[in-house]
Amino acid sequence: MSYKFLQNVYIWLIRIGLFIVPFLSLYISSDMLFPYITGRNFSFRIITEIVFVLWVGLAVLNTEYLPKPSKLLLTVFAFVGVVGLADALGVNPYRSFFSNYERMEGFMMIFHMALYFLVLTSVFKTKKEWLWYFGVIIAASVFVAFNALLQRLGVYQSLQGGTRVDGTIGNPTYLAAYLMFSFFLSFVLFRALEKFIWKYVLLVTAGFALIIIFFTATRGATLALIGGGILFSVLSVLFIRAETERQRIFKKISLAGLGVLILVPVIGYLVRDTALIQKSSTLARLTNIRLSERTVSSRFLIWEMALAGVKERPILGWGQENFAVIFSKYYNPQLFAQEPWFDRSHNIFFDWLVNAGILGLLSYLSLFAVSFFVLWQLGRAGIVAVREAILLAVMLASYFAQNIFVFDNFNTYYVFFGILAYINFNSNSLSPVEPEVLRSSPVARKNINRSMNLAVPKSLSYVVAFGVFMLVFLYVFNIKPLNQSRALIDALRSGAQGVSAIQVLDNFKKALSYNSFGTSEVREQLAQFGMGVYRNTSVPEDQRNEIAKFAVQEMEQQARDISGDVKYKLFLANLYMTFVPADPSYDAMAEAILLEALTQSPTKQPIYFTLAQYYFNKGDVEKTLAISQQAVELAPNYIDAQVNLAMVAIYARKKEIVEKILVQLENTIETNDKGSIYGKVTSYPKIISALSQVGDFERIPHYYEQLIEIDPRNIQFQVGAAYTYAKLGKKDEAIAAARKAAEIDPANYTQPAEQLIQMLESGQTIP
């Protein structure tokens, strides 16, 4: 095999692998858990490992393909080193290194991105190769954007539902961040390509990306783009010379663009409450940027929690994927209106402070700082056109800005590291080059030819050696967890298809047997399956008990494996409480694990709710009331906590507490940020149910009257009101409500209404 042939084989195989990566954003793995995440991440890791082995062979064959030392190269690997150290010394190194199916990040993501960066910056040696690479990224993004357009046109619904599109990315915010890169890269290529047709295509592509970003209704990306446009205009005015007429026109356009980019968001904000804006859900969302807005205000609460965690471990942080521990320990009870569990701080500063401490944040920020410095050097030296350097700097700045309210994922990570690799490629031109005369002398040529002949077998031996190691690595860290994900889906599907409960359990056991980083998610799904089966009396009791005990056993192990995350303790407590008939010892264990969770996370309301339910089931009214009262005191404006306390007080017939909490509940509902209608519709039916069960009908009409005012054609409200009035002997009101129910649904309620009216007219007692 000739030297040249082998080199070309390496180069083309590596190129093919690298060019496949952008199209992974289109891959949806329906046979795995989290189909928008797992499949493409596993594919990326496998491709990266393969091209890395090929690159090793190429670098051994021809040392020209070894990376040259540079500021950015050293910065990238310093970042990887700091993160690796932080993960190794974190509170849960295994989770930090391998993450889970839902995120597929951790050190494995950073490590593979570093390999990807290394291969890119070492193999792509010409500007033409880089333009092709960026062109492939843009082409892939067009397909992603077109998929999102189909969602907007109603061809099929997005994963999130509603009007926000997510394409094949699976999340509107992620899609917007991804397309933001496509938008800027289109202009990078626009500058580099000479043919008008390609310039036109790129302008259309950039415009298309902007339209889809608008359809995502993502405020962070929109603000980042506007800020990026302003920054580009300012930098263009400051650094682009006005020596030619074309340059002077460009500066004038930049100034005009600066004015427009400042005015448009200001005007949009001023008219945000007009009918024109409010009738568009997208415009309404984009202009609703208030510090008091629920999503925004919740971010500040989460950042406070993150800061508390950083103060505890400031230098190297907690390790990646461990924010849940901070969330448990420093939970702010005012977060009750948000989702119950967060695993990210939703801010790039706090994410890296939590993940890797001050050193981690500094190493991450240095990626941007060094990139900006190198771009400044490249522009000043004329190696890269000033306008291109500005574009690249603005792209990185915009990406960083939108990360203030969100976090990275595969689709943005690979482009980001690709941009870093491109900047590093250009920075190699800043280094002195070996004079060609020294390399072309007869002696030098003879030595080179001898080296080339020896390099072929040496290169192949390295590929074999690294290949064997990488095959083992690939199997353990990719194939096993990939198969586990598929086995989990098989278990879930078999349960939905009516397969016997024991067979489904065997499928779960098969998934667990792979023993990879997806085990935690297998256990969660197993626990949910176990609770569902246990309530299904058609399944033989011995099978239900077997499944229950196995689910408990696995969740106990999960709670030990990640002891800092109270989510698993709460999950385990629910299993214990559900499965007490299978094993009476679970009763005491439920209380013990809940009290342990409460000690670990003393401000997390769901723990109080579950503990109150436990004491209520035991018939311990006083403890139930005490725990429910504590939950209310944690966040006095939490409607659900007030409803729970009210219901417990009603069942316990604690009249004074009932009167006090019901007044407090109504006051809270009136000031609820979701609106009083939402609060009444979700809360009052529960209060009515509790009052009915204890026979306290006197209070009920007050709540039915408000519910009927909200929804007068709700059949359940009218029927309930008729029955309540009848029980209270309010004949006229009962007859009116009964007739209204018959009017709303004559087919089903005419006869029952007439029977009720006859009973009232004849003076019969209402049962």
From TrEMBL:
It comes from Candidatus Sungbacteria bacterium RIFCSPLOWO2_01_FULL_47_10. The chain crosses the membrane at residues 12-30, 42-61, 73-94, 106-124, 131-153, 173-193, 200-217, 223-241, 253-271, 352-376, 388-407, 454-477. GO terms for cellular component: membrane. Its main location: membrane. It comes from the Bacteria. This is O-antigen ligase-related domain-containing protein. It is a multi-pass membrane protein. It is found in: Membrane. PANTHER family: LIPOPOLYSACCHARIDE BIOSYNTHESIS PROTEIN PA4999-RELATED, TEICHURONIC ACID BIOSYNTHESIS PROTEIN TUAE. InterPro entries: O-antigen_ligase-rel_domated (IPR007016), TPR-like_helical_dom_sf (IPR011990), TPR_rpt (IPR019734), WaaL-like (IPR051533). Signal peptide: none annotated. TPR repeats lie at residues 605-638, 715-748. Residues 207-365 form the O-antigen ligase-related domain. Pfam families: TPR_8 (PF13181), Wzy_C (PF04932). Keywords: Membrane, TPR repeat, Transmembrane, Transmembrane helix.
